[in-house]
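Researcher: Here's a chain I'd like modeled. Treat it as a single chain, no partners, no ligands.
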Amino acid sequence: MDVRYQSAASFDSSFKCPADPAPERGDSTPLPSINERLAFLRPSRELLEYYRKKIAEFDEEHEDLVERLEKYKSTYEDQHKLQWDLRQREEELAELQTALSDMQVYLFQERELVLRLYSENDRLKIRYPFRHSLNLMNPATSRMYP
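Model: Modeled as a single isolated chain. Structure tokens:
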């Protein structure tokens, strides 16, 4: 009978461990552990071949899984790099927006200054119109009243 297809009941009844007490004594000792049972088993050539094939299949599956993990790792690293680049660009954009805002404030202040200077210039033209006239008529006075 092939060991692979033995039922548990027939396996237990056909298995005799030297440490087992005689059945006629009526002792209810526990069964030996599975490792002890396997130590007395002599597997058939077919069973060994079956497990060799299984191990080969598991090795192939393991290699496939390792390859897939490497591919996922590569994809993850690429995604992480892209996210890092995006974060850097967002920080750079925020800095540029702050600089632009500061420049707009500075430009507004400069425009106000220019408008004040134009206003003061106009006020001075109205207040001292003769200096301008003098400068036009006599170039020598233009040196005295710039």
